[in-house]
Recover the amino acids of this structure.
């Protein structure tokens, strides 16, 4: 009986650690357009020196050609291929919170860049990305792929 209780405790502890590990924006995500509900792209978020970076790995819209470039971008990303494009730059975790702030988010369709925040929700299975422009904001919910 004690062996069974010990094994049960180990399984619950391991499950808790796995869930906690997913409460981060790092990983592969599918972004969902907040206006149409359509999946737009797969984005991989990584971290280097405490700063986030998110790049488009795959476009999911049927009308986007495989060799599409960011024609609307106005910085170093202008004319760069959409696949591989860095759309998330900077941002770090707010101490003591499940929130990453201080970064910038690029909308490659409009070329506009917004202040952004990321909040993993539902045990890390989804994430809310909020883009700010002045006092206005938009929120997209992204779905974790891995």
């Amino acid at each position: 009986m004690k062996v069974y209780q010990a094994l049960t405790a180990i399984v619950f502890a391991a499950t808790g650690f796995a869930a906690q590990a997913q409460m981060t924006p790092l990983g592969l995500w599918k972004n969902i357009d907040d206006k149409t509900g359509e999946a737009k792209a797969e984005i991989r978020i990584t971290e280097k020196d405490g700063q986030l970076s998110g790049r488009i790995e795959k476009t999911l819209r049927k009308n986007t050609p495989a060799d599409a470039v960011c024609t609307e971008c106005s910085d170093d990303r202008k004319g760069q291929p959409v696949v591989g494009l860095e759309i998330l730059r900077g941002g770090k975790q707010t101490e003591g919170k499940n929130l990453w702030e201080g970064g910038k988010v690029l909308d490659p369709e409009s070329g506009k860049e917004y202040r952004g925040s990321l909040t993993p929700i539902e045990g890390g299975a989804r994430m809310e990305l909020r883009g700010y422009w002045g006092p206005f904001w938009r929120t997209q919910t992204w779905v974790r792929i891995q």
Observations:
- DSSP finds one helix and nine strands in the chain.
- Residues 37 and 140 are 9 Å apart (CA to CA).
- The first strand starts at residue 27 and ends at 32.
